[in-house]
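Review box. Two proteins, two foldings.
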Amino acid sequence: MPVEGGSSSGSASAARHPKQKRKAHSLSIRRTNSTEERPPGVQRGDMLEGQDSKLPLALRSNLLDLFGQIEREFENLYIENLELRREIDSLNERLTGDGQTVEGGDPTKGALKTKASHSTSQLSQKLKTTYKASTSKIVSSFKATTGSRALCQLLKEYMGHRDGIWDLSVTRTQPVVLGTASADHSALLWSIETGKCLLRYAGHAGSVNSIKFHPTEQMALTASGDQTAHIWRYMVQLPAPQPPPDVSAPCDDDQDSSDREEGEVDGEGPCEVPTVRVATATLKSHQGVVIAGDWLVGGRQVVTASWDRAANLYEVETSELVHTLTGHDQELTHCCTHPTQRLVVTSSRDTTFRLWDFRDPSIHSVNVFQGHTDTVTSAVFTVGDNVVSGSDDRTVKVWDLKNMRSPITTIRTDSAVNRISVSANQRIIALPHDNRQVRLFDMSGVRLARLPRSNRMGHRRMVCCTAWNEENQSCNLFTCGFDRQAIGWNINIPALLQEK
């Protein structure tokens, strides 16, 4: 996860949390010396001798290693593609044996067709039922996501950060704006409709790991790798709305969006926008990275979670430390407050999450829940009496606050789950994954949809967080990832529930 404060993103990435080290293979090529064997009798010096270059030998050697790693990455992808092609060929042969034909006579290029007596929908159903067990991944890739696109339409992309985005949130007051927290030491506020950056907060000296907005005032709480949390005020003016682009129109450019240069940014960046550099209040009691923060109901107190294994409760007006919540055995990963009651839930790398009760001013109680086998990346409240927890063990569990001895629902996935969110009105769970997917489930564990992901749409790296906005009779879902962008989606809730 996010890192401690530093003067550059390079130094920050070197101090990433162990969890991020495990994920580094999907984020970037490891910048370490290669330990793989060379051809017998061939040494690095021999490989570089006789080559005319002014670069130092050590630098050339390191470059050789890096290019070798790139070559091996492409080799692995090539081998994987060959295996998938063999499976596709095998599937087409089985379909042909069942009396179905392939257009054009080439099973690797043609589209699948049934005989005249079968419709396209019947073939799709046959694929789902007959070959689901052995070819589930292939069948899901054949589904052209037309249904998902009808349920989940791309609203806007928000690009301007210079490093990965860890967290995002939507204001609960007018004007409604989107806030993003990034490893580039900044937090940005965006116009949801136009995608324009409205304001930049640059008061932190480290990665900004979390952003949450005050329930009634124009104030934001940000947590950072510089071991502090900041409360700061903002004033923004929304630009005039623009007509939405036609995302369904065909695009002649078939270039994969992942080919975009790292420094290339679409739209307006944060360079020309107003910048806030001074916090209204600075909370300094932690001894490690502050990974998350949230406002208690009413907005008079805030809670922060840190890698120092503690959560702190502060008074907003005085910045006074009220309680230090200890008990977790390892670093905290997230904290969340109940929308209507004085309840706090904290999650940790120790595979547990804890429920803290502050409804009685004289005492506070704590309950420990051990339902996961790996890091609990987040635990959040719903509007009702439920807590939803997500974990690196690839499961999401729904708990009843009245009886939390065991989960009432367990959702099993194929990838680690990051910071989840639950819609207030429809109680739909949005799961961001390490494998770049975003999936939607209901509270009973039924999968509702998967957000579209293609060369031109969706995230290109790990998805870190999701957040809902259900204002003005519409339902929008926002996602952010380590590809430096946030994306807004319009979710067709009636159609989603009808598909269910």
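Next protein.
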Amino acid sequence: MESFLRLLTRGNGFLLIIILGAGGSFQSGYHLSDLSSPSPFIQRFINSSWYDRYDDPPPAQTVTIIWSLIVSLYAVGGLCGAVSVKFISGRLGRKTAVIFNSLLSMVAAGIMLTSKIANSFEMIIVARILYGFSSGLGVSLHVMYLGEIAPRKIRGIVTLTSATFSSLGKLTGQFFGLSEILGREELWNIYLSVPAVFSLVNIMALPFLPDAPRYLLIEKGDDKACKKALESLWGPADYKEEMDEMLTEQAAMEAAPPKSPLQLLSDRTVRWQLISMSVIYTCNQLSGMSAISTFSFDIFLEAGIPADKIRYVSLGLAVCEIITSISCGLIIERTGRRPLLWGGYGVLSACLVFVTITMNLQSSYWVPYVTAGLIFIFIIFFCGGPGGATATLNSELFIQSNRVAALVLMGIQRWSIFAVMGFVFPFLINTLHSYCFVLFACVCLLGCLFIFFVLPETKGKTLLEISEEFEAITVCRKSFVGKKSVETRL
């Protein structure tokens, strides 16, 4: 932690981390929570818009379907954005790609802002798709950029800031969603356009900050620009050791050129790494966290919390999330990744079981607040465990030549699951009510068991040491790995 603080005060690294966060996972976090507050207003807008066109109120099922499309098509856009990260970052470079993504976010905000004036719920859907594309691309670029500017000693803390900014985005979304700020029926379109302000800050500041040093040396072959970028970020010093590590990685890339997602899927040397990341991403998406973030209003209403108090409870959730996310950054290099992951999933599973019980015992006045307390505990252990620690794994399990392809694959999986959940959850909670959380509890339990018995610890280890631990994994005394992997020091 001391080395981290010392490095932050010597250059522009801290400023770049903030600017990248504003245009990256912050935007994704905001959009994950921003539909919770105005959801009744938007559904009434759908009703009025439909009535103005057809002189007849829409069926309730039609409103539910349109609302589900508004939620789920955001994830479809996110999926497309995640798939395109390899092409866009390769063509434009890291910094220009982030600027392009911020411009796209501003276009989406303009469409959202004018949708109410145009009396068009279709424009909301278009804006949500563009927001999704920007979020899917932005999160992947954010994690990639952080991994390529971070010195090895503080790699875990720097990459974990992506989770912190996601939590900060959710907090900002909940804050602006208060009825005293923008959470009023006449202001919902302005509320959903707020991220454009942060995108503008990103566009104005990034041209004055350096591109990623690893990208400049490894992919562009410009050692002078790399050294200049390192000095700008972390202050004047001798960066020979850092650059030697990058050159070693460059040599490994020349021996094993960058892979496409399909090539990575067929590579047996990283089979367990892909399986582990896939399981963790699936458990994160099906843990119930994304459902709680997006549908917190409906969940607390179902739990029995008075409607006029729900926004304040949701704001408290967001505050709790960001504090826990920052705390996770302070302890991750001491505790390691595994305990945070399997321990977190274990507690999440127990919380969801108790949430199911309390949501079925609403005869007492105090029971809904016990449910809210359990959800707070859920948020604490998600952000302090799987939600935070997962962000560090991609840069620790895959070398530079595999990293972008791995990001694409995980992005496809993440956004596909999110799209399905966004569309299905409104019907799920209407059908199963509180019992839908039992499904999430089972997923969390499976994640806990898999990580406890399979995933090796990555803290402070080289990629060779991590690869050897994965190679030692066997199923029915057989290994997936057919050949040894190339060592690359990070």
